[in-house]
């Protein structure tokens, strides 16, 4: 805990600039690095110190800014001060006058903000869309991922060791390859993690384990997700843990491999989000601790906009849709059996080490449309929403794919429409068969829904 600062001691009439008084001034930033008005010079603290220096009790006045940006120290009864204090008071006020004028004329250089994002935009990574009939089986094999183009693969060459133990990747030491996928209509992110390591470290039953650490922010809202970086600094660490840890973005420490332990640490207060139906995993490997070999991990996770400690009953899944950007990054923590249990590299996809606890520093990923070979030339699709059940008003939305030149809606009550997004009012209660027919250069397509549209 930080020790609270001592209250300001106001000088009495017979006070002199003792060493303690000078120390107080220094603490307020008046004398600190005054030469050249460097980084230690702080105008706000200067203002407080000026009020302190220019008088106390019935002598109290302070600084008054002038249009020119300078300042004068005023004291109605200055002549009543003892001579030594009066002279020192004048000297201090003169110093403050000159210092404030200098600040007004030459704004101090601001140091760069810590953890500042790179000025050059980073490339955006892609997330492959699996067709609905080709959803990956979570079986620890890579055959389902053969349809994913190599342009979606992210390797160690896209990452960096931000502990500076390795200048460049060495595939003889560690080599990884990651692909990420999604399925339209499911709020899941699918992963294929393939790795070679010359020394797999996974014998310890605790946190020490070769690790694939994944952090996801499904709505890319950014901000802290671990108590260390909490916004409310007056909040205790444990209060923060149970109010914000992993709530708006999630961190998964995935143990590679996991043997005799849970497959992942969901770092936060919601361990339920690493279990079915929100997550699943399977792995394949044929090595023992300390041996080299290839490892395959297949898993999916569900990103949440809100994942509270109270459980999934109030959780809000991140809605995934085509061309949506999300925040996502990972790090590979490579242990090689060192006696002191230090790692042999922290390979990070983000340029910022603390991405593990602040989702502002995650990389941008884009949920891609289907690749051309998996799209139908023309395909009728639609959805609806009841706007007013009492008046039986229904809005219909065309979601068809392909180049379309005409639409025809049959509402099932003897009426139709050629609008792309019609709003229709039914005259009587009932269950209706609604049909959308479309045409385009590639041909025709039709989709009917039987009794989905029901009004009372």
* Fraction of residues in helix: 10-25%
User: Stretches where pLDDT falls below 50 for ≥5 residues?
Assistant: 1-108
Helix-strand category: mainly beta
Overall 3D form? elongated
**Secondary-structure element series:** HHEEHEEEEEEHEEEEEEEEEEEEEEEEEE
The pLDDT mean sits at 82
Distance between the termini: 63 Å
Can you offer a commentary on this structure?
By secondary structure, the protein is mostly beta strands. Helix content is 11%, strand content 32%. The chain is built from four helices and 26 strands. It has helices at residues 19-27, 43-53, 83-105, 237-244, and strands spanning 62-65, 71-74, 125-129, 154-155, 160-161, 174-182, 189-197, 211-217, 250-255, 264-266, 280-285, 293-301, 304-306, 316-317, 325-335, 343-348, 363-367, 378-379, 382-388, 393-398, 401-402, 406-410, 416-417, 423-425, 430-440, 443-455. Strands 3, 4, 5, 6, 7, 8, 9, 10, 11, 12, 15, 16 and 17 form a 13-stranded mixed beta sheet that branches. Strands 23-22-25-26 form a four-stranded antiparallel beta sheet, with no helix packed on it. A hairpin with a 6-residue loop joins strand 6 (174-182) and strand 7. Helix 2 (43-53) packs antiparallel against helix 3 (83-105). It is elongated and about 80 Å long. The two termini are 63 Å apart. Residues 1-108 have low confidence and may be disordered.
């Amino acid at each position: 805990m930080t020790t609270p600062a001592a209250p300001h001691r106001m000088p009495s009439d017979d006070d002199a600039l003792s060493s303690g008084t000078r120390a107080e001034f220094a603490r307020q930033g008046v004398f600190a690095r005054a030469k050249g008005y460097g980084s230690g010079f702080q105008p706000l603290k200067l203002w407080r110190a000026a009020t302190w220096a220019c008088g106390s009790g019935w002598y109290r006045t302070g600084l008054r800014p002038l249009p020119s940006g300078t300042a004068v120290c005023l004291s109605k009864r200055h002549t009543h001060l003892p001579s030594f204090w009066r002279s020192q008071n004048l000297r201090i006020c003169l110093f403050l006058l000159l210092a404030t004028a200098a600040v007004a004329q030459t704004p101090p250089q601001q140091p760069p903000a810590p953890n500042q994002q790179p000025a050059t935009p980073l490339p955006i990574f892609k997330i492959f869309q699996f067709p609905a009939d080709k959803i990956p089986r979570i079986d620890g094999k890579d055959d389902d991922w053969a349809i994913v183009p190599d342009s979606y693969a992210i390797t160690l060459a896209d990452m960096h060791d931000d502990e500076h133990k390795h200048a460049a990747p060495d595939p003889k030491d560690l080599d990884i390859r990651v692909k990420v996928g999604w399925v339209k209509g499911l709020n899941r992110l699918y992963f294929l993690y393939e790795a070679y390591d010359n020394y797999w470290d996974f014998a310890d039953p605790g946190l020490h384990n070769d690790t694939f650490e994944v952090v996801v922010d499904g709505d890319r809202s950014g901000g802290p997700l671990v108590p260390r970086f909490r916004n409310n600094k007056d909040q205790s660490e444990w209060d923060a843990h149970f109010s914000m840890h992993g709530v708006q973005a999630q961190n998964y420490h995935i143990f590679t491999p996991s043997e005799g332990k849970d497959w992942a640490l969901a770092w936060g207060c919601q361990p339920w989000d690493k279990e079915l139906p929100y997550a699943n995993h399977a792995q394949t490997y044929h090595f023992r601790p300390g041996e080299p070999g290839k490892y395959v991990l297949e898993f999916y996770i569900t990103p949440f906009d809100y994942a509270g400690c109270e459980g999934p009953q109030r959780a809000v899944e991140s809605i995934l849709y085509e061309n949506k950007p999300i925040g996502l990054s990972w790090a590979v923590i490579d242990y090689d059996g060192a006696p002191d249990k230090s790692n042999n590299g922290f390979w990070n996809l983000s340029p910022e080490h603390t991405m593990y606890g602040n989702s502002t520093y995650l990389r941008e990923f884009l949920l891609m449309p289907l690749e051309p070979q998996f799209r139908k030339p023309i395909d009728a699709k639609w959805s609806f929403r009841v706007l007013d059940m009492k008046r039986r008003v229904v809005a219909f939305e065309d979601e068809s794919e392909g180049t379309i030149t005409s639409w025809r809606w049959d509402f099932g009550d003897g009426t139709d429409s050629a609008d792309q997004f019609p709003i229709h009012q039914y005259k009587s209660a009932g269950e209706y068969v609604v049909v959308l027919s479309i045409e385009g250069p590639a041909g025709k397509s039709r989709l009917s829904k039987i009794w989905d549209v029901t009004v009372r």
